[in-house]
């Protein structure tokens, strides 16, 4: 019983060894087959074109490129050395060089490069970009397909421009019933105020691009002009309370019918009447013939200060009137006076 058992045991051991050997052999041959049939796959990125390429055995990047009829131009760049052996799953990237122009500071830099990142291109040129400068395409961007080949750097500067402007004063008019209509009194003189405006001016390549108001300060308030105008239209004359159109101050001169005073010397007025002292005055044409003037200066005279516009005169314009006298002597004696007159209704 014991012997029998031993035999069985030996028998089992031999069978197991045989099995291990068989497994080993089949594993080795399987490995060999796998080795023979395993493809390696690489990805080739040539700009926009991405392709997968399978191969067996060992190959360098250069070999793989020529297998695919891909060739490098002078400035093109490859993501690995041409001589580097490529492994399964690798990506070989070709960056094709393109013609670029960088426009900055009135200059153009033209060159060919495979670099496609804007800030690296700028760095390679040794250009300094200031904080406000505008770079198109933007720095940090990668040049895209369809790019026109021009990188433009706009120099941006800012400046504060402070200007002062007057603030026009307002004009205020008040009526005053104690003043005659036509009289104006300045109660307060107006004066302009001052405001300062601070603007931020942005220059693009030295040319003004925009202007923004940043601050506006009233340095000085304007002072309004205040005037009082008379509204009273009644004056006491020899006729009692008499209504007038307007009161005004005039420069009054005097004349007679002599040839020195008048051209004709015939004593006939422009209105066709005979010139008469204490009645006839010459006034500008805006006072029609027959208009009565009350001149308080003459209130003690026979006419109680009431005159009639009957004549005109070449020099009688604006606030000028000419008063008729009987003699040249009297006219000379009167001379020239500033008088308040009332133009009666
Ligand atoms: Zn005269």
TrEMBL record:
Keyword Signal on entry: yes
InterPro entries: 3D_dom (IPR010611), 3D_YorM (IPR059180), DUF348 (IPR007137), G5_dom (IPR011098), Resuscitation_pf_RpfB (IPR051933), RlpA-like_sf (IPR036908)
Domain G5: residue ranges: 153-233
Name of the protein: G5 domain-containing protein
GO terms under cellular component: outer membrane
SUPFAM superfamilies in alphabetical order: Barwin-like endoglucanases
GO molecular function: hydrolase activity, hydrolyzing O-glycosyl compounds
PROSITE patterns from the UniProt entry: G5 (PS51109)
Biological processes, Gene Ontology terms: peptidoglycan turnover
Xref: PANTHER family: CELL WALL-BINDING PROTEIN YOCH, RESUSCITATION-PROMOTING FACTOR RPFB
Annotated keywords: Signal
């Amino acid at each position: 019983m014991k012997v029998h058992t031993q035999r069985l045991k030996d028998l089992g051991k031999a069978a197991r060894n045989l099995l291990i050997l068989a497994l080993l052999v089949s594993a080795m041959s399987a490995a060999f087959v796998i080795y023979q049939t395993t493809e390696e796959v690489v990805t080739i990125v040539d700009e926009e074109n991405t392709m997968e390429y399978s191969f067996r055995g060992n190959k360098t990047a250069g070999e793989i490129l020529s297998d695919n009829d891909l060739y490098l131009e002078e400035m093109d760049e490859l993501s690995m050395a041409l001589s580097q052996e490529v492994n399964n799953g690798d990506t070989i990237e070709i960056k094709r060089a393109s013609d670029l122009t960088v426009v900055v500071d009135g200059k153009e830099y033209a060159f060919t490069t495979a670099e496609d990142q804007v800030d690296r291109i700028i760095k390679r040129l040794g250009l300094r970009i200031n904080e406000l400068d505008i770079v198109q395409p933007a720095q940090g961007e990668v040049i895209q397909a369809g790019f026109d080949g021009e990188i433009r750097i706009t120099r941006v500067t800012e400046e504060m421009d402070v200007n002062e402007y007057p603030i026009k004063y307002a004009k205020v008019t008040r009526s005053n019933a104690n003043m005659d209509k036509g009289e104006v009194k300045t109660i307060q003189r107006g004066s302009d105020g001052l405001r300062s405006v601070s603007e931020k001016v942005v220059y693009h390549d030295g040319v003004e691009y925009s202007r923004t108001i940043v601050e506006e300060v009233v340095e000085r308030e304007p002072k309004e002009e205040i005037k009082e105008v008379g509204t009273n239209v009644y004056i006491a004359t020899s006729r009692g309370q008499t209504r007038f159109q307007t009161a005004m101050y005039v420069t009054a001169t005097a004349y007679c019918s002599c040839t020195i005073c008048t051209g004709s010397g015939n004593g006939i007025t422009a209105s066709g009447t005979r010139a008469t002292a204490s009645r006839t005055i010459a006034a500008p044409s805006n006072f029609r013939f027959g208009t009565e003037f009350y001149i308080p200066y003459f209130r003690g005279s026979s006419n109680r200060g009431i005159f009639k516009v009957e004549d005109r005169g070449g020099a009688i314009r604006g606030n000028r009137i000419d008063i008729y006298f009987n003699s040249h002597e009297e006219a000379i004696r009167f001379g020239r006076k500033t008088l308040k007159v009332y133009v009666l209704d």
